[in-house]
TrEMBL record, chain A:
Organism expressing this protein natively: Streptomyces composti
Family per similarity comment: Belongs to the metallo-dependent hydrolases superfamily.
Key word Acetylation present: no
One family name in Pfam for this protein: TatD_DNase
Protein known as: Hydrolase TatD
Top-level taxon of origin: Bacteria
The keyword DNA repair is annotated on this UniProt entry: no
Signal peptide: none
Annotated Gene3D superfamilies: Metal-dependent hydrolases
InterPro entries: Metal_Hydrolase, TatD-like, UCP005295
GO-annotated molecular function: hydrolase activity
Keyword annotations from UniProtKB, A to Z: Hydrolase, Metal-binding
Length: 282, 319
C-alpha cells in the first residue's frame, strides 16, 4: 500500500514518526505552512520557517524514504496580526521555488475582514504562479465559513478544480463537492473526523476528488491516521484500487497541478549509509 | 537528540605552525562522482510499493525506499495548466545508467555545459539555453528579482534533479554573479539553490569574500550542504581551524572525505588534525563503536610530509 499524506506538519514530529510512517506505507507528504501554536511577531519568523520547509525538513524526510513538498502562505489566524501581514510581500519570491506545490493553508479562522483580504490576495498569488491552493475551513461556525470560503473562491481568478478545501465533515461535504473543489478530510484522534465517519462519508460521496490526511501537528494527533483509514476502507469492502485512488492518486493529481511534484526521494548522498541524525545522536 | 553534530569543543592546543595554502598539489584530487550520487541511484519507477511488507522493519538507517510509481505527477485529472508551473520535465534526467555528470565545482564551466547539453531532453535543453542567454544579457537586477534568479529557482523542475546542480552553476556563471549576488541568492535559496551557489564559488569568486557562505553551510546539518561547502573554494580559503573541524564533521556525519577538495595537500603534515583524529578515534573506541574507515585514511595523509608552503593556489584554476 502506498500512501501520500497531503497535509501533515512534520516540523512538529519526531524521527520516530518518520520511521513509523514509512513502515505504514507513507512515501510522500505535503507540509502546509501554518500557525506554530506560539504567535509569530514578525515576517522574519515566517521566512525562517519557509526556509526550513524548503531545506531541512525535506532532507529529514528523504532520510526516511519519504518525498516532502510544501505549501506556503500566511495562515488565516496570523492574517489578523498586522505585525505578520507584510510577509505577503515576501511570498512571491518563495512561490517560484521548486517543491512548492500550492499556496496554503489559506482560508478563514474567525472570518474577519483581515482574513477576507489575505484569502483573496493569496488566491490571486496562486493564480499568478500557476499553483493550486489548499484552503483550510474554520473550526468554529464551519458551514457558514465554508460558504463564505466558496464565495471568495468563485470571485477569484483560480478555478475551483485548482482548489482543495480541507477539514471537511458530514455537514460541509455536500456543498464543497457541488462547488467543484477537491475535498480534504483530516482524521484526528478526538476532533475533526475519525476513521469510521471517514469511511461512511466515502461510502456516500464516493472516492472521486477525495483526499484524506492526518493533519498531524504539535497537538494531539496521529501521523498514521491515513493508514488507519485505508485499513478500515479495506475491511469495509472498498477495493485496493479505491484505497490507492484516495491515498495516492488523488493527492498526486491535485498537487501535480503545480507541475512541480517530484516523487522520487532525493538521494541524500552522503548519508545513504550513515544517517546524519542517527549518527550524530549516537 | 537534535544537535547531533555538535562537535565537541576541542581546545586548540596551540597551532602547529601549519598554515596550509600552498599550490603544491594540483587541484585534481581525484574528483569523485557528483555528491548527489555516490551510490548507484535506484532506477526510477522501478517498483510499485503496493506491499507494505517490504516497508516493515525499514529502520531509520538508510531505508532503501521502494520508489513510488507515478512520478509523472500527472494523475487522472491533472489538467496541469500552469503559469510558471509548466509540466514536470523528468526527461531532463537523461537515460538511466548514464555516467554521472562531472562535478559542478571541479569542472570548467565550458566543459560542464558541453556535457550537460547532451544529457538534457529537448524541452529542458531549450529552456536551459534560453536561461543562459537571458542571464548573460541581463545579469543585473531589475524589479524586485532578476530574471536569472527566477530561472535559478525553477531549474529543478525544468531540467530534472540530476542535472539541476550543473544547470544552476552555469546560470550563475552566465550572470557573472559576484559575492553580493551569490550571498543574496544563497540566503534566499532552498537547500538545492544553496548547494549550487557553493559549487559555483570557485568559478566566480577569487578572494575570500564569500567565506561566510561556506561557514554557514558548514554549520548546517544537511550533509549535502556540508559536502558542497568543502569544494575547491574552501580548500583555497578556509582557515586551518575551520577546515579541520569540517573534516571532523564529515567523519561525524558520514560524509565521505572524497568530497573534501584538495584533501591530500591540506592534510599532509597537519599534526593538529592528526591529534583531533586520534582523540576522536579514542572516543569512539571507548564507547565501543567502530572508527570510520575514512578516519584512518585521513590520519595516514597527515603523516605524509608537509608540502612546500608557498603562495596560495592560483585563483580560478578550476575554471
Amino acid at each position: 500500500m502506498r500512501i501520500f499524506d497531503p497535509h501533515i506538519h512534520m516540523t512538529s514530529r519526531t524521527t520516530d514518526d518518520y520511521e513509523a510512517m514509512y513502515a505504514a506505507g507513507v512515501r510522500a507528504v505535503v507540509e502546509p505552512s501554518f500557525w506554530l501554536g506560539q504567535p509569530r511577531t514578525s515576517p522574519a519568523s515566517f521566512l525562517d520557517y519557509f526556509d526550513s520547509l524548503l531545506g531541512w525538513e525535506p532532507f529529514r524526510a528523504a532520510q526516511y524514504g519519504i518525498a516532502h513538498h510544501c505549501t506556503l502562505a500566511l495562515n488565516p489566524k496570523e492574517a489578523n496580526d498586522p505585525r505578520c501581514t507584510p510577509v505577503l510581500d515576501e511570498l512571491p519570491r518563495y512561490l517560484v521555488k521548486d517543491k512548492v506545490v500550492a499556496v496554503g493553508e489559506i482560508g478563514y479562522d474567525s472570518m474577519t475582514p483581515a482574513e477576507d483580504t489575505a484569502l483573496a490576495a493569496q488566491l490571486q498569488l496562486a493564480a499568478d504562479h500557476g499553483l493550486p491552493a489548499l484552503v483550510h475551513t474554520p473550526h468554529r461556525d464551519k458551514l457558514a465559513g465554508l460558504r463564505r470560503t466558496l464565495d471568495v473562491v468563485r470571485e477569484s481568478a483560480l478555478p475551483p478544480d485548482r482548489v482543495l478545501v480541507d477539514h471537511l465533515n458530514e455537514t460541509t461535504v455536500k456543498e464543497a463537492r457541488d462547488s467543484g473543489c477537491w475535498l480534504g478530510f483530516s482524521v484526528y484522534p478526538d476532533t475533526k473526523m475519525d476513521e469510521k465517519r471517514m469511511v461512511a462519508v466515502l461510502r456516500t460521496c464516493g472516492t472521486d476528488r477525495v483526499l484524506v490526511n492526518s493533519a498531524a501537528d504539535w497537538g494531539k494527533s496521529d501521523p498514521l491516521k491515513t493508514r488507519r483509514v485505508a485499513d478500515l476502507m479495506l475491511a469495509e469492502g472498498f477495493t485496493e484500487d479505491d484505497v490507492d485512488q484516495v491515498m495516492w492518486r488523488n493527492p498526486v493529481a491535485f498537487y501535480g497541478l503545480s507541475g512541480r511534484l517530484d516523487l522520487e526521494v532525493a538521494d541524500t548522498g552522503a548519508t545513504h549509509e550513515g544517517n546524519s541524525i542517527l549518527r550524530g545522536g549516537e | 537528540m537534535n544537535h547531533p553534530h555538535h562537535i565537541p569543543a576541542t581546545p586548540e592546543t596551540g597551532t602547529t605552525g601549519d598554515d596550509h595554502g600552498t599550490p603544491d598539489a594540483p587541484n585534481s584530487t581525484a574528483a569523485p562522482a557528483a555528491p548527489a550520487a555516490p551510490d548507484a541511484p535506484n532506477p526510477p519507477d522501478s517498483s510499485d510499493p503496493s506491499d507494505t511488507s517490504d516497508a516493515r522493519g525499514a529502520g531509520g538507517t538508510a531505508p532503501a525506499p521502494a520508489r513510488p510509481a507515478g512520478t509523472s505527477a500527472n494523475g487522472d485529472r491533472a489538467g496541469g495548466k500552469g503559469g510558471t508551473g509548466g509540466e514536470p520535465t523528468r526527461e531532463g534526467n537523461g537515460p538511466a545508467g548514464e555516467a554521472p555528470l562531472p562535478h559542478p565545482a571541479r569542472t570548467p564551466p565550458a566543459e560542464l555545459r558541453e556535457k550537460l547539453a547532451t544529457r538534457l531532453g529537448e524541452a529542458a535543453r531549450a529552456w536551459f539555453q534560453h536561461a543562459l542567454e537571458e542571464a548573460a544579457a541581463h545579469p543585473g537586477r531589475h524589479g524586485p528579482i532578476s530574471v536569472w534568479e527566477l530561472r535559478l529557482a525553477e531549474a529543478g523542475r525544468r531540467c530534472g534533479p540530476a542535472g539541476a546542480d550543473a544547470v544552476r552553476v552555469l546560470i550563475l556563471h552566465a550572470a557573472r554573479a559576484g559575492t553580493d549576488a551569490l550571498t543574496r541568492v544563497y540566503f534566499q535559496g532552498t537547500a538545492d539553490e544553496r548547494r549550487a551557489v557553493l559549487h559555483a564559488l570557485p568559478h566566480l569568486v577569487t578572494g575570500p569574500d564569500a567565506l561566510p557562505l561556506v561557514e554557514d553551510a558548514l554549520r548546517a546539518n544537511d550533509t549535502r550542504l556540508l559536502a558542497a561547502a568543502l569544494g575547491p573554494y574552501a580548500a583555497r580559503h578556509l582557515d586551518d581551524h575551520a577546515w579541520r573541524h569540517a573534516v571532523l564533521k564529515c567523519l561525524f556525519t558520514g560524509v565521505p572525505v572524497d568530497h573534501v577538495a584538495d584533501l591530500e595537500r591540506r592534510a599532509s603534515g597537519d599534526a593538529e588534525l592528526a591529534r583531533m583524529l586520534r582523540d576522536y578515534a579514542a572516543e569512539r573506541t571507548a564507547a565501543g563503536r567502530p572508527v570510520p574507515d575514512d578516519l584512518h585514511r585521513v590520519l595516514a595523509l597527515t603523516a605524509s610530509a608537509a608540502p612546500d608552503r608557498e603562495a596560495d593556489t592560483p585563483h580560478g584554476k578550476e575554471s
